[in-house]
Amino acid sequence: MVSLTTTTLRTVAGAALFAALGLALSGCNEKKEETAEVIRPVKVVEIAQADTTRKLDYSGSVKARTDMNLGFRVNGKIVERKVDIGEKVKPGDVLARIDATDYVLAVRRSQADLDSAEKQVQTTELARNRAQLLFDKSVGSKSQLEQAELSYDQAVSTRDSAVSALAEAKNQVAYSDLTSDMNGIVTTINADVGQVVSSGTPVITVAVDGEKEVLIAVPEMDIAQFKVGKDVKARFWSDDALVLDAKVREVAGSADTQSRTFAVRVSLPNDPRVLLGMTATIEAQADNTQPYVSIPLSALAQRNGQQIVWLVDRSAGIVHSRAVKVADFADDGVRVADGLRAGDVVVAAGTQFMTENMKVKLSAASAQQAAADTHAASAADIVR
Fold first, then answer.
1. Are the beta carbons of 311 and 320 closer than 8 angstroms?
2. What is the reported pLDDT for 372?
3. pLDDT in tens, 211-224
C-alpha cells in the first residue's frame, strides 16, 4: 500500500514538472512572437515633382575682353623697364626701352648720305643749266643737254631715296621705346632688363580698359547648353553677395587639343567691384533630356550589386525595395533618373536595417510633414 502511494506521488510530480516546462516554453514563444512584432520607427522623405532643369556651375577667372601683347618693332637688348604688373598706363606711356646706339648711328649715316645727295643735285643742276645755255646759243649739242638732264634727274632720285632712308632710320630709333597704345593695366611681363629680344616678341601684356569677361572651360557633354546670347549668373569667390547678370559672348568652335574642353567667354556688366584676375563661378540652367528626382545619399542602398531604395506603404505600414537608376551625385544628395515618382515615400536613414515587408512607423516629424503635405494637397483640391 505504501509502495503504491509513492509511485503515484512520483507520477503526479512528473506530470506537474512537464506542465511547468510546457508553460515556460509557451512563455518563451510568446516573447519571441512579441519581439518579431516590434515596429521600427523610420525617417522618410516624400518625393516631390521631378526636376526638369539642372544647374551647371563652371569656374573661371575675370579677364579683359581685349589684351595687348606689346613687343618691340626692332631687335635689341632691353636696357630699361619702366612699369610693373598692376600699373595703369595710358597712350604714349613708355613701358620699356632697348639699346638704340646702333640705330642712332644709322640715323647719322643716313643724314650724311642725304647731305651728299643734296650736293649732287646742286652740281647736276648747274651742269644742266650750262648745257641748256650752250644749246640755246647753238654751241652745245642736243645730246649733251639730254645727258645733263638725265644726270640731274638721277641725282634728284638719289636725294629722295636718302630722305626716305633717313626717315626710316629715325623710326628705328623711335621704335626702341615700347609705348602703350590704349588705356589699360599691365598684367604680364615676359622680358626684363638685360634680355635680348627680337622684333615682335611679346614683352609686356596690357589689359585694355573696358568690358570684362569670364573665361570658362566646358566639357563636350554640356557645351550644347551654352549658346551665344544665353543669360547666366556670375558669382565671385571674394564676395558672396556679389551676383551679376551675365551673357555668353563667344563659344569656341573646336575643343582644346589637350583638355578636350571648349572655351566659353561670358561678358560681364561694368561693375567697379569686379577686378581683373578675380575668380568667378558661372551658373547656367540646362534643360534635362530626362527629368530626375533628388533623394538624400543615406536613402540609397545596394543589394546584389543593384542600387535600391526602400519605399514605405502607408496603408499597410510596411516597406519594400525598389531598384532605381542613378543619374549622378550632387552636393545635396543623389539624382535618380528612373524608379521613383512623385508621392513615393522613401526611407531616408537606416536602410541597412530594412528587410522586405518589415513593419515600420513614421517618426513624429515625418508624420507631421506627411499630414501637412496631405492637408496642402486637400486645400489645393478645394481651390481647384
1. yes
2. 47
3. 899 999 999 888 98
- Asked if residue 4 has pLDDT above 50, the reply is no
For the purposes of burial, counting CB atoms within 10 Å of the CB of 21, is it exposed (0-12), middle (13-18) or buried (19 or more)? exposed
Q: CA–CA distance from 261 to each of 187, 246, 365 (Å)?
A: 25, 21, 46
Cell of 126: 648747274
Task: Yes or no: say if 47 and 344 are a contact pair by the CB < 8 Å rule.
Answer: yes
| pLDDT tens, residue by residue, 58-103 | 999 999 998 999 999 999 999 999 999 999 999 999 999 999 999 9
**CA pair distance 5, 2, nearest whole angstrom:** 5
| Alpha helical stretches, state H, 60-209 | 101-136, 142-174
How far apart, in Å, are the Cα atoms of 6 and each of 2, 13, 99, 113?
6, 11, 135, 156
pLDDT score at 217: 93
CA dihedral angle for residue 181, residue 185, residue 190, residue 195, rounded to 10 degrees: 60
- Is residue 277 within 8 A of residue 62, CB to CB? The reply is yes
CA–CA distance from 197 to each of 71, 74, 79, 190 (Å)?
9, 9, 11, 10
pLDDT tens for 286-318 read 765 566 777 888 888 888 888 899 898 888 888
Which amino acid type is present at position 288?
Answer: N
pLDDT, position 366: 52
Nine cell digits for residue 46: 516624400
In this structure, are strands 231-236 and 239-251 parallel, antiparallel, or unpaired? antiparallel
CA distance 246 to 268: 5
Q: What angle do CA 94, 97, 103 make, to 5 degrees?
A: 120
